[in-house]
Amino acid sequence: MSPPLLKLGAVLSTTAIISNWVSQTFSFLVGLNTTRITTSDTLIIPFIFLLLQTQISPKEGWQVYSSAQDPDGRCICTVVAPEQNLCSRDAKSRQLRQLLEKVQNMSQSIEVLNLRTQRDFQYVLKMETQMKGLKAKFRQIEDDRKTLMTKHFQDLKEKMDELLPLIPVLEQYKTDAKLITQFKEEIRNLSTVLTGIQEEIGAFDYEELHQRVLSLETRLRDCMKKLTCGKLMKITGPITVKISGTRFGAWMTDPLASEKNNRVWYMDSYTNNKIVREYKSIADFVSGAESRTYNLPFKWAGTNHVVYNGSLYFNKYQSNIIIKYSFDTGRVLAQRSLEYAGFHNVYPYTWGGFSDIDLMADEIGLWAVYATNQNAGNIVISQLNQDTLEVLKSWNTGYPKRSAGESFMICGTLYVTNSHLTGAKVYYSYSTKTSTYEYTDIPFHNQYFHISMLDYNARDRALYAWNNGHQVLFNVTLFHVIKTEDDT
Fold first, then answer.
1. In degrees to the nearest 10, what's the CA dihedral of 77, 80, 85, 87?
2. What predicted TM-score, i.e. pTM, was given to this entire model?
3. For residue 132, what pLDDT band results from cuts at 50, 70 and 90?
């Protein structure tokens, strides 16, 4: 039995002993036993309480004199009471009073002991719960220790398993070290041979060879300069650079910029916009790392703008006025009306979008492509002064502007596509050098089904296009005629 149960048992045993003693004492004092009691318990119990109240016993005081039954069958007893003055001096009454006081004191003590026992019992229960928890924790710690040791052992075993394959590798290193030694020896031998060859060639012959290489490089560079212009033979691609913006827009680089300057300009939508976004490079353009924003003084029309020598050239909205805007100063440097040029969807390309006036640049300079009533709505090509926007010279073609999908200039020749949709191809070309035209058949892949901007960049030798919200590049192949010193 646990300690709290032992304490509780002691209390209960004490209570039983005291109760037994009280019953025996009362039996002695009142002089009652089972042989003398003939009435029911209902008569005995009030009788006992009467004795306790008067503090006397029937033997010394109250006595039953006679008994009979009434007509209803009830028991009638005659009781003789003792003299009252004798009860107060009765020794046994004092003894009974003292015993009652002791019983009351013992009852109070038992109550206090019971309260203490209950409190101790609750404390022991709490301690027992805590001990069980500590025992469980110790058991868990023991299990964890075994598990941890097992895990460490397994980790060590796995590391050993990983190291075992290194043994043959180390053996191979020994072999490799021998090979390296052999290689070093062969290199020393080759160095000796090369030194001998150099001595045989001689310093004068080497210097002459070096000069011949430099001369060849110079001639190749001169040849490349003569290859700057050529005739369009093929268009390949496209290469998708980015997906952004609306279906219509323009993006471009400066063909006259230095090799280190790769800024990109981005103009979304064909109308109702004045915001130009600048990126320091193609990589920044792809990642969206915008470097600067320009708020133009006028809204633009169409998507056929061009950046040339640090300035933006665009068509002012609802007019045939051309604007030259400097990115460096943020100011309009020049503006001029393009005489007789149709605008605001009078002579656009096939897709519309206020694309009446197309500004472009090539190896020769700055150009404007548009249509006039005087030329019956057919394409007019004008070469512009890049500073004043003055028309230097114009050529009238016979190709209807509204039937053209897009157009671009390469080496002074205008190339026109027959559509802006799937199946488009370069269908027509006009040479400003000879003032002649020809029909061509140069297909290209319109991957995203709707082209709203197509411009040639002479530095990159590529076509920049806005293809249904995709910014793409096309590579071009040109046929070159190499000029000699005898050519005039």
1. -60
2. 0.56
3. confident
Q: What is the mean pLDDT of the chain?
A: 78
Q: Which of 213, 228, 243 finishes a domain?
A: 228
**8 Å CB contact between 286 and 302:** no
Q: What are the backbone dihedrals phi and psi of residue 249, each rounded to the nearest 5 degrees, phi first?
A: 175, -170
Tokens for 10?
């002691």
Whether residues 177 and 290 share a domain: the answer is: no
Q: Based on the domain organization, do 294 and 415 belong to the same domain?
A: yes
Q: Is there a single domain that holds both residue 371 and residue 318? A: yes
Lowest mean pLDDT among 121-125, 225-229, 428-432: 225-229
Q: Which residue has the higher pLDDT, 70 or 30?
A: 70
Place of tokens 């920044």: 284
Residue 463: give its domain's CATH number.
Answer: 2.120.10.30
Cβ atoms within 10 Å of 81's Cβ, excluding its own: 11
User: In this model, does residue 190 exceed pLDDT 70?
Assistant: no
Query: Tokens at residue 379, please?
Result: 């394409």
Query: Do residue 245 and residue 381 come from a single domain?
Result: yes
Residue type, 472: V
CB atoms within 10 A of CB 344: 16
- In the prediction, which pLDDT does 60 show? 47
Return the beta strands (E) in 310-435 as ranges.
311-315, 321-326, 332-337, 358-361, 366-371, 378-384, 391-400, 407-410, 413-417, 425-431
Number of domains in the chain: 2
Residue 102 lies in a domain: yes
Q: Is the pLDDT of residue 7 over 50?
A: no
Residues 209 and 250 in one domain: no
